[in-house]
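Study this pair:
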Amino acid sequence: MKIANKIILAISSALLFCSCLGDLNTKPLNETDFTADNAYENESSYLNALAYINGYYMLVGQDEAGSNDLGFSDAGQSEFFRQWINLNEMSCDALKCSWGDSYLSELQNNSWSSSNDACVAVYTRAVKAIALVNEYLLQTEDERVIARGQESLLPTIAGYRAEARFHRAMFFYVLMDEFGNPPFPMPENIGGENPDQIKRADLFDWLETELLDLASESSAMPEKGAVPYPRPTKGSVWALLSRMYLNAEVYTGTARWQDCKIASKKVIDMGYSIHTPYSDLFRQDNTESGAAEDEFVFAIAYDRVSTQSWGGTTTLTSAALSEKANLAIGATFGLTKINGENWAGYHVPADYVKYFDLQEVEWDNGDNAFGYNRETSDKRAFFTNIGCAEAFSPSDQSTGWLCWKWNGLNHDDTFAQEESAAGNFKLSSADMPVFRLAEMYLNYAEADARLNNGTVTDGLAKGYIKTLRDRAGVSATTPAIITTDWILEERAREFMWEGHRRVDLIRYGKFTSSEFPWVYKGGVESGNAQLSDHLKIYPLVASDLSVNKKLDQNPGYESSK
């Protein structure tokens, strides 16, 4: 059993303080749920409730993985992390899909509305998660704990409260990044008035204050190593600050490059390590192999037995290969196949693949499952073009490159499905990194370049880049002068399908620019399209606007009031 799931084995009986978006009244999903009246009768309930908050990134309800609490017809499509990846990768040049679902077509054509399913799932789950934390913070106030006769638990609960506040900050960060000007629910809104709306820059200021408090020496936030992986620590706090400072000019209009360097270095100095080989980071046993604990600063722990989900890494694993590609790649490892499922929908356009140094590329070569020489190519490239035409078509699953960065293999190239009959092996157990050390390296390097006329000058930054390039096997092609534009391309290689691409392109001024085309940008096949600047943030969802009259829709989108 994964170490990661020691905290979430009790999910089936965990506490769910589920709120409606508009009134934030707390109500259980069903009659068997715990309520505030009986939830904390036992000491373990405090950790169980924290476990549910920790699991809300990937759980879709309190029953099996095929049912969900948002009423989506496909439970997997209601998962927070699956749709968060779609918002950040499919809206630009890294990820395309041939399934034809209307909400996916809207994302890859940059024509979404306030009822887009991905927007609804991410927004709704973020607001619900914040409500869960707010309720938890109310129920764990000192006076309430003392009234229950549990005064001796106060020091332990202080740490739990700090972890919960970090999760709330994470979900508020998502709302700030994706939706700009979201509602701002606090504990006092539980059972009370609808929350006010907060401006993006003001939310940034609140988040910075909250996170700096959690990162302080006097904070009860756990230090690295003080709690089991993947629970958040002060490393997670500084990693979120690093990302916020890197994009501060987008969020507030004021650059914070030096603060980004400082926050990144805080994480770097905490003892995380760059794990080699790169492929281990995304394998089914990335917890057991040590890869995740080495490099992941904060991660979402998936497990096919105890935290089942048809979203997250299950989607990234199954959606990206056809049966032909699955069998061909499997054969190269002496296996029947490498994945348990073949949904054959996710693709990578050829223009994005060109960022990777691929050697001896051939299209649809029946003797080469990959279509290039993997041994001499960038070790971060996990592509195949077998059975495909080069130009991606949204109506043809046999076009563009397919990706197997996430797959059904263990770190020793054995097929995880063959290990045991226990559990549902159509589901993935690969943990998903939210922050990893490699991001801190590249955040530090980019911030240094921004401070020095677009060129990296800091010796530490150059060393960090060399470490990543050495792991990828491409250090020989690292340019002598490292520019911000080169770092953007390196981020494309290092973080493909990890949720970075959209905000990276926005930060670089390329997301809406006609001078940076990608296939089907703006619905134009060539991608030669200028997008409206309002598309840099997503719309608030229509259902929330209809019940909370304090909210105004983001500019450029229709109002649902």
